[in-house]
Write a structure and sequence with these properties.
The complex is a heterodimer of chains A (about 700) and B (about 675). By secondary structure, chain A is of the alpha+beta class. In chain A, about 35% of the residues lie in helices and about 20% in strands. In chain A, the strands form five sheets. Chain A has a seven-stranded antiparallel β-sheet with strand order 2-1-5-4-3-6-7, sandwiched between helices. In chain A, strands 14-15-20-17-18 form a five-stranded antiparallel β-sheet. Chain A has a four-stranded mixed β-sheet with strand order 8-9-10-11. Chain B is an alpha+beta fold and about 675 residues long. Chain B is about 30% helix and about 25% strand. Chain B contains 17 helices and 35 strands. In chain B, the strands form nine sheets. In chain B, strands 13, 14, 15, 20, 23, 24, 31, 34 and 35 form a nine-stranded mixed β-sheet that branches. A six-stranded mixed β-sheet of chain B has the order 3-2-1-4-11-12. Chain B has a four-stranded parallel β-sheet with strand order 6-5-9-10, with helices on both faces. The two termini of chain B are about 45 Å apart. The chains are: A alpha+beta (about 700), B alpha+beta (about 675). At the A-B interface, helix 2, helix 7, helix 8, helix 9 and helix 12 of A face helix 3, helix 13 and helix 17 of B.
């Protein structure tokens, strides 16, 4: 029996420890009714979280998600308050249960995990997972993931723009039980809280996450009490099948073919770049393959995107383009295959730093996939968006309030135009969705004064439909001094336009010291990047401006009606000179400000439009194969995988092993483990759990005692 | 002079409900008119002479429609240097996580009319930079040149120190003759510059428009013979005089639907149930709100459009696009969906025969037997049952169901959407819907009441007398009510009793002045504080006397936090974020006649009805006005009245209360 045959066998007998296969049929309407019930439980998990959380990033940032998973850790229902968490959540739970063992789950357990190399995105996104039992039987898992304000590491409040390994980014948490059978293991939380900078707030957030999971378990019990456990289980299955059907129908609406696109990240914060994202989409019927072969090698700095994060970004792009209404769950995964070569910066090998993968690289992956889709369904996508959060974090001592402070700002900006309208001004990028922090709240809680919250005039990419405008926010430091970190991108390569639309303006981060002109940070301090740095010291009176760019334009700018160009000028969104240069619209002064000079405009527009400016192409980091430590990791993992898989079969696995060759219990049978498990984790798991691997090791050490 | 009148000026019809002194009631209906008042008079004169009217309160969509249609006055906006784009940037977030099918609403004030003045107040209310009066003067010149009718002024931290706003207002008044000047420190003295700016800009834009419209209403009613000026329903479920309403238009944005909540309060007293879920099911939507401890549950903000808030106390009413006209359809995965698209009143359901060709919830209710095609609106409107049936064919085929079961599925799916709405409105507050009694009203409410009980696990539902026109009735019961809220931040153990007395004192002073303006002396005053664990973002309101013990309130807060959210946080201090005052002056209430007890009626007929969960049943059909007080009926049964139909499911029981209200129990 091959791995694939075993896999098929497993799916046919898909149940895990202490869960039975239910034997009832559901009519399609009741299945949908129960499916809606499961989705609404996720929303209620979110309500409990928002009502009780402490961090601004949870409540106003909405930087969390809630999910229900079934008894195979497959996503059943989600409430994505923040889309960046999308599918990484599913991988995290699968991984956690393979490591801890399904057999070890007890009622009242609570698991905590944040490791990006175990399905996560970046360290501050900490997951809390609670098994849901009803009538003594395991129904599935309730899970949420929220962004904690601090996870230790080299940077206050995170986002060390110059981290060279994940160890500098903060504390890594493998799946551990915070509660065991309802009893809190306080040492676990003590260990975590000792490694973060704001333990009191963060304990409050952990409690909110726990309250949210308990809500889910109570609600699922209500559902079981009403409909019976078997029906609820079948509904979980049907809900996935329903989303799969919707996903397949949506993919079918895209013409078959291969669509290629590439976009770049500016740099990695430690002096390398740009990094190229190469994507090839192959649509065949109701299935699609996404291949990132040709993407730059993994980065030394923190722009790497974990495998789970890359996967989530692809689905994010799909949902934006053709699946806004599809309930997101495991069913969406089935018709989609994503491959990112091991060792490229979209599937890095540990201990590569990954902090910016979630907030920066993710957006670029979404835009690149949209760019590929634009070639076949331009009417469904938008041009490139401002493409960064310009994460700006830091902290210090607040003399006025006599307290330590930490802060994490993230930025909205301009979205790309579409085939029918201008891009949105000042809206969160597609990998997130958040409220801003009001100036009056910021000033009341932090030693800063807000000087400006304004549209970034002139930043929208010219086009028949103009890109949306970015935002300019300026803060003055009132503390004696503080330390700040930044992790942004799109400061160099601007957001792309589509169908003749021009790029939007890039982002900037400026520092104005008293009595001096505003300058990019890398011109004030010793830094390798204007957008990524750690530990910059600011003094009282310094002003920081976070300026996001505009979206790309859609369609040729000369097709934009002159009246709309005039309106943009009157509203102060575009200068008279830019109107003439970018849109070939001539204006003349009048009592109301400006009016159209029709004759001159006709003349300007009768000339052929200027050829698009040559894009300044810098050589991207090549997609080299891993070397040194990374190469060794890949080879060891692959070799172990190959050796074990060569010997799996009914005898050692199905009959003799407690894992029974089940892909949700054994990485050697898991379809995606080979794509992202690192060698250390795989070896440790194998020595603990796999007879074949142990036997293999004994044989090999007998042959070569030096290798033990 | 004896009649107490409630009026609801709706989008299509104006409903009037008249209570005579001796307890008799009359309802009347007329088409709504653009000036509102002609429709009111047309309906009123059907049942009562205007000079017989002792008190008249009406819910009006004047402010709401002006907002939705953006018929606002031309407004100038003046704010702190650097912040003019706050009205455009807003609080950022997208309404839908995915997809590009969203048009970001335009800002309330265009950028050209948003101007700035230098000067800063800090977070403790101290002036750190003086107001640059030259900026204010040049703004005044620009506003004058642009011909604005009103100016909204919103400076940072004016809720702590309004001096700059007041000075700027003074300069503008001197320079701009006849222009309304609105200060954010008057309209909404609370933290959060965007919400305060938005509220103030909308107040400025509404004031001239609403003032003109309500002046006309007042004049016309007086000319028609009404002895006293009318009152207007407020968004908070109370009423105020029309004179006050002309000056406080932002308090009218939920004027229409708030009538239902007001009627709910009265119903709550009448039936002795302090906690109610009100669900108003009409043609295009279902609207839910709560009565908690006898008071409407309120929110502190309403939204004009996505992310354009109006921060005033409003009855918390939420809607879902599921009503009688909601269209049923199958999605590409074969999933049955109901709404959000609606056939509306025109063309309406297929059964209306007015051109509708998409199956609606009403068509499904007809096909599974819940509605009698020959008794719709008391038989005044014939329904085409065959066409309704036929329209469900594709759905039945797609699901592999019989027509009747497909129809029952559509009705059930609509029920599920409404149940989800009820869950949201309760669960968001940490409340369990099963601890409430459901009140179902609106044309389709009684049809769904029984099914909602089953779906939500609630024990009892009430179908009030006059269920189809409950919102109009609400005006007649509403008390004069003013709400005040003021930001006041500090840890409870740091607050002194003097600070608390001062904080409440200012609000109490305003409350007494407003109540005197309405012609009342001693209002009932309810004072409370908003508390949370330090650092949290959501508060719980706890009652507290102005000179009461704040630490005791904090301990009650901790109990409530545990009750709602399941845990305490012993290591976290409790923080005060706001003080609140509510002033209520009771108005005379109409009396409601009791219904007589009658002999048990015989069914007027029987029909077969298909239910989603349990299939076909034989239902006896009763006429509502033949049911006397004290009567009990066991389901399955149908109770019909001209405006609506009540369904008593198998296993459910119906009882008639002395006030004529029906109680449905599981």
């Amino acid at each position: 029996m091959t791995v694939n045959e075993l896999h098929a066998h497993d799916l046919a007998n898909a149940t895990t420890a202490r869960s039975r296969k239910p034997d009832v049929a559901l009519d399609p309407v009741l299945a949908r009714v129960l499916g809606r019930g499961l989705e609404s439980i996720c929303m209620e998990m979110g309500s409990a979280m928002i009502a009780t959380a402490v961090s601004a990033v949870f409540v106003e940032g909405r930087d969390f998600s809630c999910a229900l998973l079934d008894d195979r850790a497959e996503l059943v229902a989600t409430a994505n308050f923040d889309p960046s968490h999308l599918s990484a959540m599913a991988l995290t739970a699968e991984y956690a249960l393979i490591e801890l063992g399904w057999e070890s789950l007890a009622e009242g357990d609570v698991i905590v995990v944040n490791d990006p190399y175990r399905g996560g995105g970046h360290l501050p996104d900490i997951c809390v997972i609670r098994p849901m039992f009803a009538e003594g039987e395991l129904l599935g898992l309730a899970m949420n993931r929220g962004h904690h304000i601090d996870v230790g590491g080299m940077a206050v409040a995170g986002f060390p723009g110059t981290a060279r390994s994940i160890f500098q980014e903060g504390v890594r948490i493998p799946p551990v039980k915070w509660f065991e059978a309802g009893v809190e293991r306080q040492q676990v939380m003590d260990l975590l809280l000792l490694n973060v900078r704001f333990p009191r707030e963060q304990l409050g957030d952990f409690r909110a996450q726990l309250a949210s999971c308990i809500t889910a378990e109570q609600r699922i019990r209500d559902l079981v009490a009403r409909h019976g456990i078997d029906r609820v289980k079948v509904a979980m299955h049907e809900t996935k099948a329903y989303s799969e059907r919707l996903m397949r129908a949506a993919i079918s609406s895209i013409p078959d073919g291969r669509y290629v696109f590439a976009d770049v990240m500016d740099d990695d914060g430690v002096g390398n770049g740009p990094y190229r994202i190469a994507v090839e989409l192959s649509v065949a019927g109701d299935e699609v393959t996404v291949d990132f072969t040709g993407t730059s090698a993994q980065a030394q700095g923190p722009i790497n995107s974990s495998y789970g994060n890359t996967l989530g970004s692809v689905f994010n792009a799909f949902l934006h383009t053709f699946g806004a209404e599809i309930p997101f769950n495991h069913g969406c995964f089935r018709p989609v295959a994503v491959s990112a070569p091991r060792g490229c910066f979209l599937n890095p090998i540990p201990p590569a730093p990954v902090f910016g993968g979630v907030t920066e690289t993710s957006i670029r992956v979404i835009d690149a996939v949209a760019g590929a889709l634009a070639q076949v369904v331009p009417e469904r996508v938008s041009a490139g968006c401002y493409g960064t959060c310009i994460n700006f974090a830091g902290g210090g001592w607040d003399e006025e309030r006599n307290a330590a402070f930490g802060v994490y700002f993230f930025q909205e900006g301009g979205w790309g135009a579409t085939a029918w309208r201008d891009g949105w001004n000042s809206v969160p990028n597609p990998t997130s969705n958040f409220n801003d922090y009001p100036a009056e709240v910021v000033e009341s809680t932090l030693p800063v004064r807000c000087r400006e919250v304004a549209l970034n005039e002139g930043s929208g990419g010219p086009g028949e439909y103009r890109g949306g405008l970015g935002t300019r926010r300026t803060y003055e430091i009132l503390a004696e001094h503080c330390e700040v970190n930044a992790l942004g991108d799109r400061f160099d390569a601007p957001p792309f336009g589509l169908r003749g639309g021009q790029p939007g303006a890039p982002a900037r981060l400026l520092l104005e010291q008293p009595g001096r002109a505003p300058l990019p940070f890398d011109q004030v301090f010793e830094m390798r990047s204007p957008s990524k740095f750690s530990g910059a010291e600011l003094q009282r009176g310094d002003r920081v401006s976070m300026i996001t760019g505009g979206g790309g334009g859609f369609g040729e700018p000369w097709r934009r009606p002159p009246e709309r160009v005039l309106q943009d000028v009157r509203e102060g969104l575009l200068s008279v000179a830019d109107a003439r240069r970018d849109y070939a619209v001539a204006l003349e002064p009048d009592a109301d400000g400006w009016r159209l000079d029709g004759a001159e405009t006709d003349l300007l527009r009768s000339q052929p439009p200027p050829a698009p400016a040559e894009e300044r192409v810098r050589d991207a980091v090549p997609p080299t194969t891993p070397s040194g430590r990374e190469a060794d990791d890949v080879q060891r993992a692959r070799a172990l995988m190959d050796r074990v898989r060569a010997r799996v079969g009914p005898d050692p696995c199905l009959n003799a092993c407690a894992k029974r060759g089940d892909p949700v219990r054994c990485p050697f049978h898991h379809p995606m483990a080979a794509s992202f498990w690192d060698a250390d984790s795989l070896e440790r798991w194998a020595m603990r759990n796999c007879q074949i691997a142990r036997g293999d090791r004994q044989q090999r050490s007998a042959k070569d005692p030096a290798r033990t | 002079m004896s009649a107490i009148v409630g009026v609801d000026v709706g989008g299509t019809f104006t409903d009037v409900y008249v209570f005579e002194r001796e307890g008799t009631t009359h309802a009347a209906k007329a088409p709504s008119t653009p000036d509102a008042v002609s429709g009111v008079l047309a309906a009123l004169q059907q049942v009562v002479e205007p000079d017989e009217v002792e008190a008249l309160s009406f819910g009006s969509t004047i402010a709401t429609n002006a907002l939705i249609e953006r018929r606002l006055a031309r407004v100038g906006f003046l704010t702190t240097s650097g912040f003019r784009d706050v009205l455009e940037i807003r609080r950022l977030w997208r309404p839908h996580l995915f997809g590009h099918a969203w048009d970001r609403p335009a800002a309330v004030v265009p950028r050209r009319l948003r101007l700035e003045a230098a000067g800063r107040i800090d977070w403790r209310g101290r002036e750190v930079e003086p107001l640059t009066e030259g900026d204010v003067r040049s703004a005044a010149e620009s506003f004058a040149a642009a011909g604005v009718e009103a100016v909204a002024i919103a400076f940072l931290f004016s809720y702590l120190n309004p001096e700059h706003e007041r000075r700027a207002g003074q300069i503008l008044r001197e320079m701009l003759d006849g222009v309304h000047i609105v200060l954010s420190s008057d309209v909404n003295p609370e933290r959060g510059e965007y919400e305060r700016s938005s509220t103030t800009a909308i107040a400025a834009g509404l004031t001239p428009v609403v003032d003109r419209a309500l002046a006309a209403v007042e004049d016309r009613l007086r000319e028609a013979g009404l002895a006293r000026p009318p009152r207007v329903m407020k968004s908070n479920g109370g009423v105020m005089s029309i004179g006050a309403a002309r000056k406080r238009p932002v308090e009218l944005v939920k004027s229409g639907p708030a009538g239902g909540a007001s009627a709910g309060v009265f119903l709550s007293e009448r039936i002795g149930e302090p906690n109610l879920i009100l669900i108003d099911i009409g043609g295009t939507s279902a609207d839910a709100s709560l009565i908690i401890d006898g008071h409407p549950a309120r929110g502190d903000s309403d939204a004009l459009e996505w992310d354009i808030p109006i921060r005033v106390p409003v009855v918390d009413i939420r809607s879902v696009g599921a009503g009688g006209g909601s269209i049923a359809w199958l999605d590409p995965a074969g999933g049955l969906r109901v709404g959000p698209h609606s056939a509306g009143a025109v063309p309406g359901p297929v059964a209306y025969g007015a051109g509708g060709d998409q199956p609606t919830v009403t068509d499904a209710a007809l096909t599974c037997g819940l509605i009698d095609p020959s008794y719709f609106l008391g038989g005044r409107m014939r329904l085409d049952a065959d066409a309704a049936r036929a329209s469900l064919g594709p759905i039945a085929n797609g699901l592999g169901f019989s027509l009747e079961h497909a129809a029952a599925s559509v009705v059930h799916m609509a029920t599920v959407e409404m149940a989800a709405l009820v869950r949201h409105i309760t669960v968001d507050r940490g409340l369990d819907p099963r601890s409430f009694t459901l009140v179902a009203f609106g044309g389709a409410g009684p049809l769904f009441a029984g099914a909602l009980l089953d779906e939500l696990g609630i024990g009892r539902a009430v179908i009030p007398t006059g269920a189809a026109t409950l919102s109009a009735m609400g005006g007649a019961f509403a008390d004069v009510t003013f709400d005040y809220r003021r930001t006041e931040v500090g840890l409870v153990h740091d607050m002194t009793s003097t600070q608390m007395r001062d904080a409440f004192g200012e609000l109490l002073e305003r409350a007494r002045a407003d109540v005197r303006g309405e012609g009342f002396d001693q209002p009932e005053l309810r004072t409370s504080v908003d508390l949370r664990y330090a650092g949290q973002w959501h508060e719980i309101e706890i009652e507290l006397e102005p000179d009461g013990d704040l630490l005791d309130a904090a301990s009650r807060f901790e109990d409530e936090h545990e009750r709602l959210w399941g845990h305490r946080r012993p290591e976290d201090p409790v923080e005060l974020t706001a003080v609140r005052v509510r002033a209520t002056s009771r108005v005379p209430k109409p009396t409601v006649a009791e219904v007589a007890s009658l002999p048990a009626p015989a069914p007027k007929g029987r029909r077969t009805i298909t239910l989603f969960a349990s299939g076909e049943h034989d239902f006896p059909v009763f006429e509502r006005d033949r049911l006397g007080a004290g009567l009990a009926l066991a389901g399955p049964a149908i109770v019909e009245e001209p405006q609506t139909t009540t369904v008593i499911g198998p296993g459910q029981r119906l009882e008639v209360l002395t006030g004529g209200d029906l109680v449905l129990a599981r």
